[in-house]
Design brief:
Layout: H1 5-17, E1 21-23, E2 29-30, E3 36-37, E4 39-41, H2 50-68, E5 73-77, H3 82-92, E6 96-99, E7 112-113, E8 121-129, H4 133-144, E9 148-157, H5 161-169, E10 174-179, H6 180-189, H7 195-206
Parallel strand pairs: 5-6, 5-8, 8-9, 9-10
Antiparallel strand pairs: 1-4, 2-3, 6-7
Helix pairs in contact: 1-6, 2-3, 6-7
Length: about 220
Amino acid sequence: MIFNKDTAEKTAELLLQINAIKLNPGNPFTWASGWKSPIYCDNRLILSFPAIRNYVRDEFSKNIEKQFGKPDVIAGVATGAIGIGMLVAESMGLPFVYVRPEAKKHGRQNQVEGFLQKGQNVVVVEDLISTGSSSLNAVEALRAAGANIKGMAAIFTYGFDVAEQNFKAANIDLYTLSNYQNLLTLAVAKSYITEKEEKTLREWNVTPSTWDVEAK
């Protein structure tokens, strides 16, 4: 679910402007999972544009507090959400921790890095939601450390049905600054893509794991 429509449209436009989101239906990308995709999202680029990273920080800060109340701690999911998560925590005057994909093999063998007390209320910040598996892995690590998870806030989601099912099963409320539907609507309106390309992008979103542009 998006925080609000105005933020969703503005965020989508900013991500397109800096090429954090690339749309290329005719020459799809290949994800690490092997999926063919007409879209590629790299929200790490936001950190290189001060005005845009400040916008994202401010939208997160006010909407997190509005939706979840002010938590005790902000947690970022490594590695993509560490930078923006720290900015949000600083803006809100809160402690920050981050969560590794898995526990370290040496030293203290931490998966959650930073100071976290059992029972503290935590909002998790994420950069991108695809299936939700890695994001929810971070949630489980925080829960294992004794955190009370108030919810998750992400910059962008592809809006896959499997992600919705995964978050529902984990009993986690997810809110995003923008999403796939708002992105496509804005991309057509601003002539980033044609209506024909929009149709291709919508078809992919329904069956991303089996979609192949060459079969169309």
